[in-house]
Amino acid sequence: MSIELMLGTLAQLLTSPYAMWMMLLGTAIGIFFGAVPGLGGRLAIAVTIPFVFGKEMIPGAVFLLSMHAVTGTAGQISSIMFGVPGTGDDAATIVDGYPMAQKGEAGMALGASLMASGIGGILGAVVLAVLIPVIEPIVLKFSPAEFFFLALLGITFVAFVSGAAIFKGIVVGLYGMMLAFVGMDPQTGIARYSDDFLFLWDGMDLITAVLALFAVPEMIHLGVKGGAISSISRDMADTGVRAQLKGMAETFRHMWLVFRTSMIGAFIGILPGLGGSAAAWICYGHAVQSCKNPENFGKGDVRGVIAPESATNSKEGGSLLPTLFFGVPGSSGMAILLGAFLILGIQPGPLMITQHLDLVWILIWALVVSNIAAVVILLFITRWVALLTFLRGGIMIPFVLVVVVFGVLLAKGQWENLILLGVLSVIGYGLLKYDWPRPPFAIGIVLGTIAEESLHKAWALWRWDFFVRPLSIVLIFMIVATIAYAIYRGYKDSQKEAGHV
User: Looking at the predicted structure, is the pLDDT value of residue 285 above 70?
Assistant: First the structure.
């Protein structure tokens, strides 16, 4: 892997007007599809595949990859502003991003998320570049047994994102896991908990569930409370470029957190089947676990924005690795992208390393440049979007609810999900009103499905022996250590409170 090849492919990309135009066009379209709830990168690729049919290989691939890579960067806008996730991957950003908007810190939250997304995307591309020679043995070491324990490790973070209400968090997390089992049994093909409702046979739609638990309850709360989303006046808040630059500075202040969560996100992206939602929630839990003052999370802590945004974008670089070199897509979005690559004449496999490494490097540079371009474009757009938090609720609530309904219908195209939205919204508002933590629900529904499918596969392959595989033992130790630390921290916090009393 020579420096000449790296620099030569960068020059080839930057000096080709057509390739640059296609990349910038893809970035702009990706920002739109990411910002509108319910659309996302998968739909963006599916819709635009006909337009790249017959195009040159490199410009077409750069267009599709750039478009897919920046949807996560734009998806945080509605998550922070209104508590409405652009895609399922953006749900973790709501937990602290929306409270920051309520405190009049929307500009700062947007700036932090933009910079964290940009850096995460670049670090994900760096991971892709560094791991090219050693990717095969790493990927092959992970089996369904390790996926199962990795999912369990993520679920143990429920204890951290629940704050002092650990019991409540476990209950809500188990509720999310229970809903994850709705649909067809992956082993027997028998419908579970779905009766004759065909729309539930594919499982509980994540976007519908997240919107019902986060977006709709916040709008109901806003209607009951009155006023605007922001609890302070526009004169007291700073939503301009200065506030966004302050948020960007916070990202660099927590650079070690950005680096850690970007590495975790890229690693999760490499492992086929986990996806961006798992990466975001696992990294959010890691941020809560590893900080000195976790009680601030959920109340508008900028670290709760930085961690999931870094992970969401860095996993794109990681998921491109198995997609290109093994033809095994690292996520559902990459599965659609893989089909588009085949249409363009790109044949994924080991030959990509030996004969087409120049194409791989062009795609790596496309990831880097498109992420930088997205940050620059959004830096000028979001300062105006942030002002929406100061509109009174009577104007904002109908608009946000229309966006929510639009997102639910676009996600699966099934009107029945609107009924599901209504039922779960009542439960979500109950959790909000009586101060029960809601993030554990999302963790349960995201990781519950992964844990179940991996458990069945691991049991079929090794029976009880899957507990004693080397990597399984390491992950079991991490799970036990995580739970023990959560109990210890809860004990210390209770001692502190007793001392103050």
Answer: yes
Most confident range (mean pLDDT) of 85-94, 129-138, 306-315 is 306-315
Dist CA 1 CA 177 (whole Å): 45
> Which whole-number Å values give the CA distances from 427 to 4, 39, 189, in the listed order?
58, 25, 29
Is the predicted pLDDT of residue 418 greater than 80, yes or no?
Answer: yes
Which own/partner contact pairs does 253-260 have at CB distance under 8 Å and 24+ positions apart? 254/302, 254/303, 254/306, 257/287, 257/290, 257/303, 257/306, 257/307, 257/310, 258/116, 258/119, 258/120, 258/123, 258/306, 258/310, 259/123, 260/286, 260/290
Mean pLDDT of 273-285: 72
Cα separation, 408 vs 350, whole angstroms: 39
Of all helices (H) and strands (E), which one includes residue 319? helix 303-325
Neighbouring residues of 490: CB distance < 8 A, sequence distance ≥ 6: 159, 164, 166
At 501 the pLDDT is: 47
Return the structure tokens found at 404.
């929510």
Alpha carbon 249 to its chain's center: 22
User: In this structure, are residues 116 and 309 in contact, taking their beta carbons and an 8 Å threshold?
Assistant: yes
Q: Who contacts 419 (Cβ-Cβ below 8 Å, separation ≥6)?
A: none
User: Side chain identity at 1, as an amino acid letter?
Assistant: M
Q: Quick one: tokens of 305? A: 């924005």
Q: Give the model's pLDDT for residue 236.
A: 45
Domain ranges of the chain: 3-500
Count the Cβ atoms, other than its own, within 10 Å of residue 402: 10
Lowest mean pLDDT among 35-39, 58-62, 196-200: 35-39
Q: What residues contact residue 21 under an 8 Å CB cut-off, 6+ apart? A: none
Q: Is the dihedral of CA 142, 148, 154, 157 positive or negative?
A: negative
* pLDDT tens, residue by residue, 394-417: 777 787 788 778 777 776 777 888
What is the residue type of 452? E
The 10s digit of each residue's pLDDT in 435-469 is 787 777 777 777 787 788 888 888 888 888 888 88
Amino acid at 273: G
What is d(CA 38, CA 33) in angstroms, rounded to the nearest whole number?
8
